[in-house]
Amino acid sequence: MKLKRIAAAVLSLTLMCGAVTFNNVYMNDSVVYASQSNTTGTYGPFTYINYGNYIEISDCDESATEVEIPSEIDGLPVTTIGVTAFASCKNLLKIDIPESVVNFEYWAFYGTLWLENKRVENPLVIINNVLVDGLTCTGNIIIPEGVTKIAEKAFCQSALGGYVGTSPEPSATITSIQLPKTLKNIEYMAFARCENLTEVVIPENIEYVDNTAFLDCENNNSYLVLSSDYNMEFLSMAWTFGNKPTVYVIEGSDAHTNAEAMYMESLEYYDEGTFKIAFISDLYGDIDSDSEVNSSDASSVLAEYAKTATGGEKSFSPIQTIAADVNKDGVVDSSDASSILAYYAYTATGGTQEIEDFLGQ
Q1: Is the pTM of the predicted complex or chain greater than 0.85?
Q2: CB contact at 8 A, 70 and 78
Q3: Contact 122, 158 (CB under 8 A)
Q4: What are the residues facing 68 on neighbouring strands?
Q5: How far is CA 201 from each of CA 33, 161, 227, 230, 322, rounded to the nearest angstrom?
Q6: DSSP string computed for 266-328
Q7: Closest by Cα among 214, 231, 232 to 223
Q8: What digits encode the pLDDT tens for the residues 240-249?
Q9: Cα–Cα distance between 58 and 82 in angstroms, integer?
């Protein structure tokens, strides 16, 4: 797939006069294969690649100021905007994108006036339920429900992600991400080089996380929370945080079993493994992460509830939100604060149960 992008970029520069046949080439486990013949052609201001069952827009006339991408070319759906397809169109102000387009390869609109204006409207640029760009985001980010995919390098500014001796620029200055339950895919280098990122909570319905998605996120206190049925094939993304993140799992879950297996495998290559395993249950009630559940935690929850109940923005990070929702109803409110306070009173008088046991969960 990555080699396909390189081939497409080269061909878009050299094969712009009419339709030309070429072989699609891709790489799998360091072996190069050739597949069916594909064609490149032009349609209005666009250069496109016909892959046999879908169309990719690979380039655009750099003088364009307004464009309308068709939903079909050659009788096939236009589904993909290729790598830097519009990057040379610096004066592009308007783009009409059909619902058929659901794949956005990295920096598809980079440098256009259209993207700059979109960022002013909302730093999370979302097209057809795909989060395409978040490079101007800062702090704690909440990605809205309805988003199904985070596109390639959506938050990554580095051209090479730190490879081959480069000194890449830092990416978006985000510290935590709250991902929506609707999310299915996190694509190639989506959050790479987000050096301030500390917390990621992976939703239960996730289907794919590229193993470069969090490349070079090198904060010393990184946390990755996995759902009970998470496919640990992509746990290698945790290794790329760079500083041995803590991976939280539900005790006894498939994620727990698979995390332990992945950890043992990593021991074959590293003396102490590349991540730590902890249980989500260890988070409950401990809002300030001081390893105690007490009245200050209850006060924090109550303050957060008061703020959000009156229309204020959430201030809790994703990890704090998990910790605060002790009754596990998906809402942080006064009942959680009351439960935490009751548990504190219990332990202050000698009680030894864990909070989940105390609350009868």
Answers
A1: no
A2: yes
A3: no
A4: 96
A5: 36, 22, 8, 11, 9
A6: HHTTSTT-S-EEEEGGGGTT-TT-SS---HHHHHHHHHHHHHHHTTPPP-S-HHHHHHH-TT-
A7: 214
A8: 555 677 788 8
A9: 5
